[in-house]
Amino acid sequence: MERIAYSELRSTPQLWGLLVLLGAFIGAAGAAVLYIEHYGHIVTGMNNQVVWGIPHVFAIFLIVAASGALNVSSIGSVFGKQAYKPTARLSGLLAMALLMGGLVVLVLDLGRPDRLIISMTTYNFKSIFAWNMLLYTGFLAIVAAYLYAQMARGVPSFALKSVGLGAFLWRLALTTGTGSIFGWLVARPGYDAAIMAPMFIAMSFSFGLAMFMLVMIGTCTMTRRVYSVELRTRQARLLGLFVAVVLFFAGIQHLSNLYVAEHAAYERFILLEGGIYTALFWGGQVFLGGLVPLALLFHPKLDRKKSLVIIAALLVLFGGLVQLYIILIGGQVFPMEIFPGYAASSSFYDGTIASYRPTILEFMLGFGGIAVTLAITTLGMKFLRILPVNLSDANVDPSGLE
Amino acid sequence: MSQRKQDMEKGAEINRRGFLARAAAATLTLAPGVTLSLYGSEASAQVTSANRWGLLIDVNKCRSDCNSCVSACSAENGWKDTGNPETDPQWIRKVDLKDLATGREVSLPVMCQHCETPPCVDVCPTGASFKRADGIVLVDKHICIGCRYCMMACPYKARSFVHEEVPEEDKNVNAPRGKGTVESCTLCVHRVDRGDMPACAIACGETGNGAILFGDLMDPDSEISIQLATYQSSALRDDLRLNPGVRYQNI
Ligand code: SF4
Ligand code: SF4
Question: For B128, which of A9, B23, B144, B246 could close a Cys bridge (C-beta 3.0–4.6 Å)?
Answer without folding.
Answer: B144
